[in-house]
């Protein structure tokens, strides 16, 4: 069972998400709350696999709550899926930087929401394809005037660096395999090594790091 915690300050939204997810045979809604402080407490108590996290809430916003939940070593397996009303929201970028595994628009279909929870629960990142590339590039351009040094990048091999650049370009493992003319298994091995060396949870964090470090530049591709 996938254990889910729902965090949203609108009661009717929480109830709707809870009813939808609880009806799935493989999902168990273990808690609901309407602010970030309570989310941190419930996450520590219930150890959910996935937290559906709103951003703009009273007491503590979803960004701080995400950061605190993911900083708890006991919650190492917890993943955060950010919910947002707007397709380009400056806070979404901050949430990804805080460690969220991706984001989903609140007007997504019921099937998309259920699929998103399952994707994130199995350890993959979920970045809404229609807006993610634009969002990352725009806020990397606006907010990161100078690259942030990441010394661990020097530990990557040339091929691992290339794989990271392709991840940042939005390519899937199968697409990377086709581009590099290698097997998908080989790509998975490279991806796992990149994540281990850089201390990354998933592809969402890989995209953010690639842009923040200057490895990939907004509108300019790999450096």
TrEMBL record:
Keyword Chaperone assigned: no
Designated name of the protein: Response regulator transcription factor
Domain HTH luxR-type: 149-214
Annotated signal sequence range: none
Native source organism of the sequence: Actinoallomurus spadix
Keywords: DNA-binding, Phosphoprotein, Transcription, Transcription regulation
Record PTM 4-aspartylphosphate, positions in chain: 54
Domain of life: Bacteria
Domain annotation Response regulatory: ranges: 3-121
């Amino acid at each position: 069972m996938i254990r889910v915690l729902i965090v949203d300050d609108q009661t009717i939204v929480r109830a709707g998400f809870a009813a939808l997810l609880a009806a799935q045979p493989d999902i168990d809604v273990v808690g609901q709350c309407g602010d970030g402080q309570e989310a941190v407490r419930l996450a520590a108590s219930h150890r959910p696999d996935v937290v559906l996290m709103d951003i703009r809430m009273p007491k503590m916003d979803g960004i701080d709550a995400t950061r605190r939940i993911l900083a708890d070593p006991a919650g190492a397996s917890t993943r955060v899926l950010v919910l947002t009303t707007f397709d380009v929201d400056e806070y979404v970028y901050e949430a990804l930087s805080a460690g969220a595994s991706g984001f989903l628009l609140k007007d997504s279909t019921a099937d998309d929401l259920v699929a998103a929870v399952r994707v994130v629960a199995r350890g993959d990142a979920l970045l809404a394809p229609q807006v993610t590339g634009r969002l990352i590039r725009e806020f990397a351009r606006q907010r990161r005037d100078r690259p942030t040094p990441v010394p661990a990048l020097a530990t990557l091999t040339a091929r691992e660096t290339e794989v990271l650049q392709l991840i940042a370009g939005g390519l899937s493992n199968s697409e990377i395999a086709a581009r590099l003319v290698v097997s998908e298994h080989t790509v998975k091995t490279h991806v796992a090594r990149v994540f281990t060396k850089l201390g990354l949870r998933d592809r969402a964090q890989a995209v953010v790091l690639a842009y923040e470090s200057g490895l990939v530049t907004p509108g300019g591709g790999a450096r």
